[in-house]
Amino acid sequence: xxxxxxxxxxxxxxxxxxxxxxxxxxxxxxxxxxxxxxxxxxxxxxxxxxxxxxxxxxxxxxx
Length: 63
Prior knowledge:
Layout lengths: L2 H24 L3 H33 L1
Helix pairs in contact: 1-2
């Protein structure tokens, strides 16, 4: 995956995770909240990975 697709997938996972957490909280389902938190964390990691790829590409392009 490229940096842009990593960041887009990451943002989608973050939003889905937040929604899942909110739904879990609304129905008092701790398992759903935990899965949402994990999905949000995965999304944040994907966004970070995309930013790193972008930074590395910028350094390589300048050399």
